[in-house]
Amino acid sequence: MSTTVSSPRPGTPQPAGTDAGAAALSAKPVGWKTPVLLAAFGLVALVFFGFLAPNQTASFGISTGEDFFQLPALAVNAFAGGMVLSVLMLGLAGYAVYLKTKDRPAPGWLPVTFIVLFVAAFLIWVVGGARTPSISLAGLIAGSVTLAVPLVFGSLSGVLCERVGVVNIAIEGQLLGGAFTAAIVASMTQNPFIGLLAAAVAGALVSMVLALFSIKYLVNQIIVGVVLNVLVSGVTGFLFSTVMQEDSERFNSPPGLEAIEIPVLSSIPVIGPILFRQSLVGYLMYIAVLVVWVGLFKTRWGLRVRAVGEHPQAADTLGINVNATRFWNVTLGGAVAGIGGSFFTLVAIDSFTKEISGGRGFIALAA
Predict the structure, then answer these.
(1) What is the pLDDT of residue 65?
(2) Domain boundaries, the chain
(3) 260 CB contacts (<8 Å, ≥6 apart)?
(4) Which of 170-184, 255-269, 274-288, 341-355 is the least confident region?
(5) Which one, of 365, 366, 361, lies nearest residue 233 by Cα?
(6) For residue 343, which of 288, 273, 267 has the smallest C-alpha distance?
(7) Arithmetic mean of pLDDT, 259-263
(8) Residues 169 and 365: beta-carbon distance below 8 Å
C-alpha cells in the first residue's frame, strides 16, 4: 500500500519554525579555528611582548621636518604598553570563544583589530629593546608603501591575467625583464622616462610569449610561466655579466626618477610623506589600481573580460573573441608588471644587479 504525500496548496499556513529549522539545518557550523588561533597568538604576545618586554620607553616620531605643524612623538613604556595590548588581545580572543559557545561566527572587525594590536605590540617590543629606542613612524610607513610598489604592479598583472583565465606564473620574469630593460635603455639614452616605457614594452613581450604558447598552442600555463622565469633570469644574468659589467658607465648607470612632492598635500602630517611624496612610478601605482578596478567592474570591457574568464563558451556565443581578449589582456598585464620592474632600477638603487627582483613576482602572484 503506497502513501501519497501531497504538497500544501498556495496560501496554506505553514507550521511555525519551519523556515527557521531549515535555515538552522543549512547553516554552516561555526568552527574553533579562529578562537583558538586568537587565543594562541594572544598568549604568545602576553609572554614575549608583555612579561619579557624591556622596561624602557619606546618613542615613535609622527611628524617630519617638512610638515605644516609638528606633532609630538608618541612615547610608550615597552613593558606597560605590551601588557595592555596583550590583555586587549586576550579579551578579543575570549570574546571569540564566547561567540563560538553561542554558535555565532566572529565578526569581521574582530580579527582585523586583533592583528592591528599584535603589530602595534610587536613594534613597541622591537623599538623598546633597541639600543636607541626611537623610530620615525611616518618614515617607516612611507618606506613600506614605497617597497610595496613593485608588489602592487605585479599583483595587478596577475589580476588582469587571472580574470581572462590565464595563470600568470611569469610575473617574476616580467618584473626582472622590466628592471633590466629600464636600466640599460635609460643608461644609453640618459632619459628615465624612455627607460620606463621600455620596461613596459619588455614586460609586454614576455607576456606575449606566455600568451602565444598557453592560448594558441594550449601549452600548460604553469610550465610556460616557470620556463619564462628561468629564461629571463638566465638572459638578464648573462647580459649583466658580459655587457653591463664591461662598461657600467654606458650600460648600467641610469638616471633615477626623483621623488615628486605635491605642494601643500605633501606637508600634511603623517599621510603627506606617505601618499604625496612619491616617485612617478609611485603615483602611477595609485592610478593603475584605480584604472584596473574601474575598468574591470564598471565598463563593458571589464564585463567581457570577466565573462571570458568565468564562462568562455557563453562569451563565445555572444560574439566575443575569447582568444583575442585573453591575448591582449595577458599582454597588458605584462606591461603593467614591466612598469613595476622599472622601480628597482629607476627608483630604488639606480642600477641593475642579478636577480634584482628577489622573488617578489611570486609574492605578487600570491597577493
Answers:
(1) 67
(2) 33-144, 148-366
(3) 277, 278, 279, 280, 283
(4) 255-269
(5) 361
(6) 288
(7) 86
(8) yes
Q: Is the pLDDT of residue 16 over 70?
A: no
**Residue 310: is its pLDDT beyond 70?**
yes
Cell numbers placing 288: 593603475
Is the pTM higher than 0.70? The answer reads yes
**What is the overall mean pLDDT for the chain?**
87
Beta bridge partners of 57: 77
Q: Read off the pLDDT of residues 88-105 as tens digits, 9 standing for 90 and up.
A: 999 999 999 999 999 999
